Amino acid sequence: MRLFGTKFFSLVFILSMLVSCSTVSKSKMDEVAQRVKQQLEDVYHQKFTVKDVKYMPLDNAYKIEFYETDNPDISFYTKVDRNTNNVTFDTYNESISNDKVTKWMVEPYIDKISNDWFGYGDISGGDPDPINYDTLKDYENALSSNKKNALSFGAEISINMKITPQNVVNLLIYIYQFGKYVNSYNFKYIDLNVKVYTLPDGVTAQEYSSSDKDTYDFKKQDVLKATLKVSTKDIDSYKMSSPMDLAKYLNIYKDNKESTLINDKPLYSKVQYLYYSWERKKFNNMF
Prior knowledge:
- This protein has 287 residues and is α+β, with helices and mostly antiparallel strands.
- The protein has 8 helices and 10 strands.
- It folds into 2 domains: 85 residues, no CATH class; 189 residues, no CATH class.
- It is globular, with a radius of gyration of 23 Å.
């Protein structure tokens, strides 16, 4: 199903023969997009849908966006260069890898915070590459056996929820657990970037994150309520022993002012109370 080795170069050669366009009319762009789509489907044995096609004058190239018809989360761009007649689409494999990492490693934690979120996980820097594994267990085994780990892990996550003490506690607990889980594989670099929005009814995190913010009748500063950025040094096992250690990295936006959770005394005191009540309950359930 996936494209490797000589198949890649063969497909590039086949696709390059499709493009000898002398115009940039919409009908011609649509024609090129459909021909590329057919060639992709013949090689990948996968159905694709054309999402968008544009002409880029500075590059003298067509930029075509596709997604897997049965899995719209896997999208990628194909660039058709009219100068050289070359066609490239290497972002497809990257999109497949990101989709696996998101579903395997990110989703189980973020789903516990909110059922309305959008984002992705990304592992880069070499092998083992998620694209070569069919299950999370197999990939985790490969990560664990990789002694010279030079890989980097990144995640960009947008969450739609209200800032309440209980929601903040859940955010701290599960981002902490997520960070510790990721850190257990000794990635060289880790970068987690979480944004919390409180969006109007009818607007989802995916819609807002994937669209032009200027198209909405509200401003970003009116709906952005918190940010949490955690990097490798912050989640080192020797520097963090509790979800509450994340409080100093959580920025709260209120009344056009920014402060860390620790400095928002009323909210912080309620969060502390709820968190330590949860800790006591968890401890009592052990006996």
